[in-house]
Amino acid sequence: MLKTLASGVGLLAFVAAVVIGSLASTGIISDAAQSFRVKGSEASIVQASREFEPKTNFIGETVTAGNLTWTVDTARKTTELKGFTFPPDPLEGDLVVVTFKVKNDSDGPITLDPESLILVDEKGRESPPAASVNTEYVVPDKAILFNERALLDPGEEKEGKVVYDLEVPFETDPTADLSDFRLQLGDGDPTAKDERYVDLGF
Predict the structure, then answer these.
(1) 84-103 pLDDT, tens digit each
(2) For the domain with range 54-199, which CATH number is right: 2.70.70.10, 3.60.15.10, 3.50.50.60, 2.60.40.1240?
(3) How far is CA 34 from its chain centroid?
(4) Are 74 and 98 in contact (CB under 8 A)?
(5) How many CB atoms lie within 10 A of CB 138?
(6) I need a labelling partner for 154 at 20 to 30 A (CA). Which of 3, 13, 90, 137 fits?
(7) Distance CA 5, CA 36 (A)
(8) How far, CA to CA in Å, does 41 sit from each of 45, 53, 82, 93, 152?
(9) Using one digit for the tens of pLDDT, what is the confidence trace for 58-67?
(10) Are 193 and 187 in contact (CB under 8 A)?
(11) Distance (Å, rounded) from C-alpha 33 to C-alpha 45?
């Protein structure tokens, strides 16, 4: 009889603990627990991502630089990107994402590279996109500066996307009010200097 009673009391205690734990986790009797998955465990980046609203500028500007015609479609400032592989490990930081089209106007093939699309800040500092970021967070069909799709045949046009991490080259505070960023667009000829510039609007 005593064993049965003890077993019943133990079972009731276990059920009560489960119910109280469930209520606490949902915030009914306490603040619900929160966790943030942050690459590199950067608490400051998490705080910035909470406060920052992603901004997309629709550029739609076309320029011709030497043998290449560039159209800059959009520029987006964000604090998080998801990878295209599984699981989609997020990249968090101070990021600029640009979508574009480029056409080869010459009579011969042209091979693009990261130096074809350089980000320039208000102080004139330059940064090409990093392969480590773009090969992991841009699908191969769009990461044309970093794979075999960099080759443009005469008259060929391709769409691309490129990501810049502002913290590394520019030492930018994620909460800063960014301004006067522009793209330097290459001319497709390493012996010439006929680049053009497009403002990104922030």
Answers:
(1) 877 778 999 989 999 999 99
(2) 2.60.40.1240
(3) 24
(4) yes
(5) 23
(6) 137
(7) 44
(8) 9, 21, 16, 11, 40
(9) 999 999 999 9
(10) yes
(11) 19
The pLDDT assigned to 51 comes to: 52
Question: How many angstroms from the chain centroid is the CA of residue 69?
Answer: 25
Evaluate the omega torsion of the peptide bond into residue 109 and state whether it is cis, within 30 degrees of 0. no
Name, in order, each residue with C-beta under 8 angstroms of 26's C-beta and a sequence gap of 6 or more. 32
137 close to 83: Cβ distance less than 8 angstroms: yes
Residue 2, judged by CB atoms within 10 A of its CB (0-12, 13-18, 19+), counts as exposed
CB 198 within 8 A of CB 182: yes
Record the tokens describing residue 196, joined without a space.
């053009």
Angle at 165 between CA 143 and CA 76, to 5 degrees: 70
Query: For residue 181, how many other CB atoms are within 10 A of its CB?
Result: 21
Reported confidence tier of residue 135, pLDDT bands at 50, 70, 90 = very high
